[in-house]
Structures are given as structure tokens and as C-alpha cells.
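Worked example 4.2. Below are the chains of a multi-component assembly; read each line carefully before continuing.
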Amino acid sequence: MVAWSDQERSIITSIFSNLDYNDVGPKALIRCLIVYPWTQRYFASFGNLYNADAIKTNPNIQAHGTKVLHGLDRAVKNMDDIKTTYAELSVLHSEKLHVDPDNFKLLADCLTIVIAAKMGSGFTPEIQATFQKFLAVVVSALGKQYH
Amino acid sequence: MTLFLSAKDKATVKTFWAKISSSGEEIGTDALSRMLVVYPQTKTYFSHWKDLSPGSAPVVKHGATVMAGVGDAVAKIDDLTSGLLSLSELHAFTLRVDPSNFKILSHNILVVLAIMFPTDFTPEVHVAMDKFLAAVARALSEKYR
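Applying the procedure described above to all two chains together yields the following C-alpha cells:
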């Protein structure tokens, strides 16, 4: 079980309560598909991903980016047991989606970059540390049920 | 021989660097400050510093040194291996920084670039800079073994 200070909890809830999911979610996913193009392997059914502009304007990617970001809501609400909270999602990513768990870190890094761009200097080193700790726990939980 | 950088990558890096190089010291200081806070294990390389807090004098000085090295790498982007030879020997034989830390510092440089240049640091610039920093890291670890 991961220990969270009161300050860390309030940083995470604050970031997520001030989030425009429809903006940040797609931006993070788009960035991931462009910066780490091999991640496009999971989106063959999404249509045109042939170049950066196609990715940026693809409506399926828009929708999916928002969906993925909302997927983090349950972790925010259950910070004391993200592992159990995500057991089912982990099975889904392993058994149904067949996502290489190393890819979770890539998306997490892109989300960090997008949040940093949004918050500017408000994304202090301490806030960055807390946000990355949160994402690391999420990433670990999502990989837990792979076998 | 340049490692994995296309002509487009190099052009993107050079163009972006021209925009941001005047902020080099600030970028370096912030990136280093963040690295020491977010990845505390990196502090083990700086036990000889009196103050490791964000923006402290040794951090400012060293941040500038590191970014000057990055700027040098941009200028030598067509042959990083020979261009960064002495820096590579320094890191291999004297500093002996575990290469995993290059990735960590690169990540923090990218975070700072996103913060300072949110409109210019597009996904396309991001991928070029990420590849460039990886190439620099690779050149710096050439002599390790």
C-alpha cells in the first residue's frame, strides 16, 4: 500500500478538479502517438493515423483521449488502494487489449508534459514529484494482473 | 555518423534551439532542480554540494554548464560521437554517471521546455528533441565500456 501525505492528496485532487478532460486527454494521447509512434499499433481500427495532422484531427482519438483520462478518476478517488481499484482494468489491458505495459509509462510521461504546459510555472518541482508518483502507482497497478 | 536523427529531426532541433537558447541557463537550472526533487536518487552524484535545493547557487551554476553542453551538441549535431568525445570521456572515466540518469535528466529538460514554451513545444518538436537528447546520451556513454 502506498503512503500519501495530506499535501500529496490535495495536490492530486486539485489537479484533477481543475482539469479540462476534453482538452488534456486528447492532447496527451495525441502526443503519445506522435512521440512514440509504435503506440499506434493499438489503434489500427481508429482510421487515419498516417501523419501528425491526421492524428491531431482524428475524432476517434479525441474521444478515446477523454475516455482514458477519465479512467484516472477512480484512482484519484481511491488513492489508498489503487492496486485493487485497477485490478479489473489491468486484466482488461492484458487479456483483451494486449497492451505492452511498458507503454503505460509512455502515456504517463506525455500526460505529465501536457499538464506541465498547462500549469506553467505552477507545475512546481514538488507538484511534479507528486503527480509523477501518482502516475507511477497507476502504471504499476495497471501492469499488476499481467501473467 | 549521427545516431538515429533524420534530416528533419536535425532541422527541427536547430530551429527550436535557436528560439530557446537565450533561456539556456534558466532551462538548465529548472531541469536540474526538478531532477533533484523528483528523482532524489540523483542527489547521490552531488554529495559534495552544500545546497541541493531548487535554484541554489551550485544548481544554477551546474544547470548552466549542462545546457551549454546541450547547445554544443546542437552545433555538432551532424557528428555527436566525435563532437562530444571529450565530454564522453569525462562521463565515462571521471564522472561515471549511470546512463539511466541521462534519461531522467532528459525527461526533466522536456518538462521545462513544455512549461516555458507551451505553444512551441508541439508534439513534433517534442519527438525531435526527445530523439536528440537520446542521441546525446548515447554519445556521452560511448566510452563507458
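Take a moment to check your reading of the output against the notes. DSSP finds nine helices and no strands in chain A. The domain at 6-143 of chain A is CATH 1.10.490.10 (Globin-like).
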